[in-house]
Amino acid sequence: MAARSLAAFGAVLAACLALTAATNPGFVVRITQAGLDYAHQHGITVLQKELAKLKLPDISGDFPVRHLGKVRYEISSLNLRSFHLPYSRISLVPSVGLHVAISNAFAEVDGNWRVKFHFIRDHGSFNLEVKSVYIKIDLKLGSDASGKPTVSTSACSTRISSVDIHFSGKFGWLYNLFYSAVESRFKKILESKVCDSVVRSVSGDLQHYLQTLPVTAKIDAKAGIDYSLVAPPMATAQTLDVDLKGEFFSLAHRGAVPFPPPVLAFPPDHDRMVYFGASSYFFNTAGFAYHAAGALVFEITDSMIPKGVEFHLNTSTFAAFIPQLDTMYPNMLMKLRLSAPSAPFLSITPGGISLQPVVDIQAYAILPNTSLAHLFLLSLTGNVSATIDVKSGHIVGKLNVGRMKLSLKHSDVGTFQVRMLQSIMNIYASSILLPRVNERLAEGFPLPLPDRIQLSNILVQFHQNFLLLGADVHYTPRERR
């Protein structure tokens, strides 16, 4: 019985650990076949240039001729003039990675030859055409300890169907004697060299480029974003999904987020090259990080009141609603300190983004000696919606405030009707606070993009618990000096 109970406890514990480890990502990047095809075009261009730089070794040997002896040949100064990869495709291998197939590639090689056969000696140049080259490459995708993506060549094979060699010289019958030996050796050498070049190109150019994906992005002096991979990229039949942590954090003190990421149910859209799924968790960790950093505090003084606004921030204005101010603090300037008692929490539904922030408004009178006297503490709640766009690789937003409601939390100047302050507080919030918040949101937050990538043809959609951004990609190669 005891053994059975212990086994049951172990099974329950294992299940709990598995559930704990299976953390949903806060941000997902989905690359479609169209996106892979675009990346593949640029990758093949780079590989073609690398293959054209191949250095081929000299070839020499003896070829026995029946009843005649041996033909001694030397092939030297091999120069690969070009290497063309006209047909290739990239495909997804579910749960494995990527497969690249190159067909009908061809190359041209020039060089010198020298031959010795008994008393016959000859030399000259040759032109070699490599036709119908087939290359198969398997790419394994992963992530390193820092959360950056990795790529490696898990398999590579090259097959050359035919090699045509054209020798210049007087003894045509002699060249035919060692033609097959040169052809065979050249195929083996080139097949090996091609895969060596592929491995170097993947581990060098491609791997270094993937490492430019930012796993952390500093937003300002208060917060940053963690874009590290929470798992290796996952290939499906139609897409390549990259799960990222997608979490804002305070630069001063990074603590655990007290709520989990939701499950993201991507729609079956594949019209764009890339899609970004930013969950409600992603945005809510922003509020949590800025609140933890003490950044959700804002002060309003009379000097900030826009021209044209009739209500000045002084006790004379507020005495119309709170008569006792004229007696206690006559004709003094005031200050409002706005702060969030808790981190704002937003919701994302197919209808859009909405939140109901709670703001404490502490009012002070500025005394002649510049010290502050507490007047009253209000609580402001409201319905806020947001519009979202993407500009220059950043998520940008704008808040729109609906109906706001005031309530009195504490008063040092006696009782008064809070309802009377509703209009003036609405004006302060809409003309001073909201423009400054929207000014910051217009700067945006960077998307996780590697170097030299620009987005176009932007799509913005709202789904349950996440924002979906779709885009096409344009890559600008670095100029080589």
The biggest sheet, with number of strands, parallel, antiparallel or mixed sense and barrel status, is:
8 strands, antiparallel
- Beta-strand share of residues: 35-45%
**Rg over C-alpha atoms, rounded to the nearest angstrom:** 35 Å
Q: Approximately how much helix is present in the residues?
A: 25-40%
Structural class, please?
A: alpha+beta
Number of strands: 23
Task: Summarize this entry quickly.
With 481 residues, the protein is an alpha+beta fold. The protein has seven helices and 23 strands. Strand 10 and strand 11 form a beta hairpin.
Describe the structure.
The protein is an alpha+beta fold. Helices cover 25% and strands 44% of the residues. The chain is built from 7 helices and 23 strands. The strands form 4 sheets. Strands 14, 15, 16, 17, 18, 19, 20 and 21 form an 8-stranded antiparallel sheet that branches. Strand 16 and strand 17 form a beta hairpin. Helix 2 packs across helix 3. The longest helix has 39 residues. 26% of the residues are buried. The N terminus is likely disordered.
Key terms:
alpha+beta, 8-stranded antiparallel β-sheet, 25% helix, rod-shaped, 481 residues, disordered N terminus, 7 helices, 6-stranded antiparallel β-sheet
Structural topology:
Elements lengths: L1 H20 L5 E6 H19 L7 E7 L3 E16 L2 E7 L3 E21 L2 E24 L5 E19 L4 H39 L5 E3 L4 E4 L7 E2 L3 E6 L2 E4 L23 E6 H13 L4 E5 L13 H4 L5 H5 L5 E6 L6 E4 L2 E4 L2 E9 L5 E20 L2 E18 L10 H22 L1 E2 L6 E11 L2 E10 L6
Antiparallel strand pairs: 1-11, 1-13, 2-3, 3-5, 4-5, 5-6, 6-7, 8-9, 9-12, 10-11, 13-23, 14-15, 15-18, 16-17, 17-19, 18-19, 19-20, 20-21, 22-23
Helix pairs in contact: 2-3
